[in-house]
Structure formats: C-alpha cells, structure tokens
Amino acid sequence: FLNKAFFHESVDSTNQYAKSKAMDFPGASFIVVADTQSKGRGRRGRNWESLKNTGLWMSLLAKPDINPEEAPKLTLIAAAAMAKAIDEVADCNVGIKWPNDLILNGKKIGGILTELSAEPGYINYVVIGIGINTKKREFDSELRDKATSLENELLDYKMDHLRILKVFVKHFEMYYNQFVKFSDIEAVLTINREKSVTLNRTVCVETGGETSIYNAIRLDEEGRLVVLDQAGTEKTIFFGEVSVRGI
Ligand code: BTN
C-alpha cells in the first residue's frame, strides 16, 4: 500500500514533513526518513532529540478508510510491527509499554507519535512517527536511567536502519491491511499482550492534570488498557498518558 519513500539528510520533523506533503499526493501512502531532525517532536509537545545518524527517524503517512475513532489502533499496529522488526533484525526481545513506547532491558529505545487529520467520520490522513535509538551513545543525566539504544544494549548489533525499515514495512503492511479490510487486529493484540511491560504492574494514569494509580490487568478487544482501582473496580483507559511504576 506504500507508494513512495522520501529519504532526507535533514528535516525539521519527519511527521511535519509528511503532513506538508499529504495533499501533494492524493490517495497515496508514503514514508519519510531523515538522518537528523532539527525539531524532532515527542508526545505531549516534548522535544525528541534526533542527532545525525544516531537513530531511525521515520514517519508513515496513510489514508485509511476507517472511522477516526479507530485511529489509535494504528499506534498498536505500528508498535507490534516495529517491535517484531527489531526483534528479528537485532535478535532481541523488545517490550511494548502501552500504547506507544518500545522498551529494551527496562529502558526506552523508541517511541511512537501518531497524529491525525480528520473530519467527523472521515480521515484525511494519519501520520505515524517512530523514533528508534540505534547508535551507541551516552545519554544526558536526566535520560540516562530511562533511555537507551540498540547498540548500547546489544553487543552484536550494528546499526542498520534500512533493514529495520524493510522488515517493519513488511509487518506493518500485513497488520494494516488486515485491520483496514477486515477490522481484524487479533494478531496485533496478541503481540501487544505478549510484549507488554505494562500489564500486571502499577500504572499512573494522567487525565486532565490528575494522576491516579491503578493495577493494569489486561488489554481488551479494542486495544484499550483495563485497570483496577484501589477499591478493585475495573476502569478502561483509552490512550491517555500512562506511566508505568517501577520502570
Ligand atoms: C515519544 O515517545 O514521545 C514519541 C517520539 C516520536 C519520535 C519520532 S522521530 C520520527 C518522528 N518525527 C517526529 O518529529 N517525531 C517522531
């Protein structure tokens, strides 16, 4: 389903660049990759450090014919496809911190930022931005305990963005078609459940500035996180900000 790929030395943000090209290619889906981003963006308006050739910085723009409310499932699809791709290429076992962080040995190696342009009942386009730290490097003191890279964690791994990208696209395409054509995300849910570093843990959920603490118990059939509150009552979380205690 991908029609094009753009490879750039430097862009402000691959998400931003993809959006700027969205209307130039009506009906097309494409990928943007950059060696470095001057304004890489993380979730919640955070900056995403994207130094030259230290990671895979990419965005995938697609125009799925689905209800905009279903769009968050694309993040689960991307997480499953990327976690599997890294497992295969780097021979490791990547975890998924629901819904959009990729974890290796308890630290973050990558994140996903999904952005949507939609009208009621209709998606203009969705941009799925993924950043994976690959190169061996030192992180600043504030990130040191939280972030890592593939080369930092895996002695035998040598940075190879094209291979990760190819395997990612292969998996993503399969899950995406299954979802868009048949509303089927079973395989994606299985991977997200098996690889989850969120389930059976204490999670902090931030909604409207308030933080509540729960126990994460399962992902439901829509990919939402089901938690138990202090009183043992079930509550369903859909793509709020979740931080997992203990990681
Ligand atoms: C997060 O964990 O906060 C999400 C990080 C997403 C970073 C990627 S890098 C490629 C794409 N372009 C951006 O500006 N952000 C995403």
TrEMBL record:
GO terms for molecular function: biotin--[biotin carboxyl-carrier protein] ligase activity. Keywords: ATP-binding, Biotin, DNA-binding, Ligase, Nucleotide-binding, Repressor, Transcription, Transcription regulation. Biotin binds at residues 13-15, 37, 41-43, 108. The keyword ATP-binding applies. It comes from the Bacteria. Its EC number is 6.3.4.15. It catalyses: biotin + L-lysyl-[protein] + ATP = N(6)-biotinyl-L-lysyl-[protein] + AMP + diphosphate + H(+). Transmembrane segments: none annotated. Residues 1-180 form the BPL/LPL catalytic domain. Belongs to the biotin--protein ligase family. Acts both as a biotin--[acetyl-CoA-carboxylase] ligase and a repressor. This is Bifunctional ligase/repressor BirA. It comes from Fusibacter tunisiensis. The chain holds residues 78 to 324 of 328 of the full protein.
